[in-house]
Design brief:
Helices cover about 35% and strands about 20% of the residues. It is an alpha/beta fold. The strands form three sheets. It has a seven-stranded mixed β-sheet with strand order 5-2-1-6-7-11-10. A hairpin with a 6-residue loop joins strand 3 and strand 4. It is globular and about 45 Å long.
Length: about 210
């Protein structure tokens, strides 16, 4: 299985690195970071740069694509090379996936019309403008498209993907390897239970 993760300026680091780590540990998987041209791409916090080792043209037909979100997603929606690559690669994939606002890029590529999908809670309702049916779940599967909610949900998505492409024992083994056993210090990770003040504080961090 060959997975491609497209990078664009101001992507969110964990959106890309979380699924990369899960899939890279799985036997029989190869994961490649791609961009318009090979080279460094910097995340939305300015402190993490990942090297894209291939261009879109170098990898037109991956088995899986994982599209990250980030503060740069709005600008990336106008990146015709990226959107075209997603649309064309989707024709060849076994699975097309996204993390966080990466689902909007799937929408821009015309892949979400009439499908259930999720995204970061701040923008979830706006997925309807992409023709999708927004679903407030951490991971949503509709056909061969899997979308994940915000940021850390990309790890859940990648483990769910492994269970479908390999098997559950493989996914469980990778989960143990990365010691993914969430025990957060605060009960503050869900917008469903957060107070209005906490939601406002969190939203402000995204501006």
């Amino acid at each position: 299985m060959h997975a491609a993760i497209p990078l664009y300026p101001r992507f969110t680091g964990l959106d890309a690195v979380g699924p990369y780590t899960v899939l890279a540990f799985a036997p029989g998987w190869q994961v490649t970071f791609v961009a318009a041209e090979p080279g460094p791409v910097t995340d939305d916090q300015g402190g993490l740069t990942i090297e894209a080792t291939a261009s879109y043209a170098d990898l037109p037909d991956p088995d899986v694509i994982v599209v990250p979100g980030g503060l740069g997603t709005i600008e990336a929606l106008e990146d015709q090379a990226l959107v075209r690559w997603i649309a064309e690669a989707h024709e060849h994939t076994r699975w097309t996936t996204s993390v966080c606002t990466g689902s909007f890029l799937l929408g821009a590529a015309g892949l979400l019309t009439g499908r259930k999908a999720t995204s970061h809670w701040v923008l979830l309702d706006q997925l309807a403008g992409m023709g999708a049916e927004p679903v407030d779940d951490r991971v949503v599967v509709d056909g061969k498209i899997i979308t994940a909610a915000g940021v850390s949900a990309g790890v859940d998505m990648a483990l769910s993907l492994l269970a479908r492409t390999n098997d559950v024992p493989t996914a469980e083994a990778v989960q143990l390897v990365i010691e993914y056993d969430p025990d957060p210090p605060f009960d503050a990770g869900s917008a469903k239970t957060a107070s209005p003040d906490l939601r406002a504080r969190a939203s402000a961090l995204l501006r």
